[in-house]
Amino acid sequence: MSKPLLALAVCLFLSTTTHLGADDDAVKLHAAAVAKIQAGSFAEAIALLDQCIAKDPATAVYWKDRGRARQMLDDLDGAIADYDRAIAVEPALAMAWNNRGCARRSKGDHTGAMADLARAIALDPKLDFAYVNRGYTHIVLGDLAAAKADIERALELGTKYRDYPALWLWTIRARMGDKPAADDGLRKHLATLAPDAAARSFAARLAALLLGDADEAGFLAELDKDTTPEGKGMRCEAHYFAGTRQRVLGRDESAVQHFRKAVAQQAPGYVEHHAALRALEEMGHATAELDK
Question: How far apart are CA 37 and CA 40, in angstroms?
């Protein structure tokens, strides 16, 4: 799976066998669908999950995982419809609430996202990604203190994907006026990565950008050459974090330019898109024409 798709996918959950139904054929088809999702073959996964649902519509995880595949293809309405059905079948399925919260945030429904993520946490207080996702949504809503608490809780719970939460903690701490602590925390995180992992991690390159250790212009120019479908997500992330660093340093004009470029990528599946809109609004810039 590509770097930006992995970054998007970490907010979503696949299923474990705990919730699978009794139809053996559907269970086998589901296992194949999970493999397709993990490989980034989302359309093929949907076709397999269609068969699962036809055989066993009373198993919630089939609806949830088809919603996940649809969401990865930017079919947010279809994804939400599937999450709705998963929740109707199994109201206690915390992962479905988490995933629907992510989809709602991508559509700009931050109030709905917060409600879903709160429900996911109430159902499973150790669901680390739900804290991450609620933390991200707090950022979009401008509540940095609540965002910090949620992301730190996710890290305490041992969330597997720590790279992006580390970037967001830098953002929060620096925006709250403690850039030295933000820098120290991010450098400590980078020190935990194996050298080869740090070299190939896009998140590590974003960390270098935030720390001032990267050639910002060269990095962004390199991303501009990426014509793949995933390139827009990478540019959205890079411009958002570049803009955040410039804002922390008091370079508002440069920050606004970066935030506008982040939004211009039209990648609403990325929290950075919504955070850039929020930043522009906080800095007194109209966003209605941008977010179309």
Answer: 5
CATH number at residue 77: 1.25.40.10
Cα gap 257→207, rounded to integer Å = 20
Would residue 235 count as lying in a domain? no
Residue entry with tokens 């969401």: 71
Residue 212 lies in a domain: no
**pLDDT tens by residue, 89-127:** 999 999 999 999 999 999 999 999 999 999 999 999 999
Give, in order, the Cα–Cα distances in Å from 267 to each of 4, 67, 106: 11, 18, 9
User: Do the domain assignments include residue 29?
Assistant: yes
Count of domains for the chain: 1
Task: Determine the structural domain holding residue 140 and report its residue range.
Answer: 1-159
pLDDT per position as a tens digit, 170-220:
999 999 999 999 999 999 999 988 777 766 789 999 999 999 999 999 999
Q: What pLDDT, in 10s, does the model give residues 46-88? A: 999 999 999 999 999 999 999 999 999 999 999 999 999 999 9
**Phi, psi values for residue 176, rounded to 5°:** -85, 5
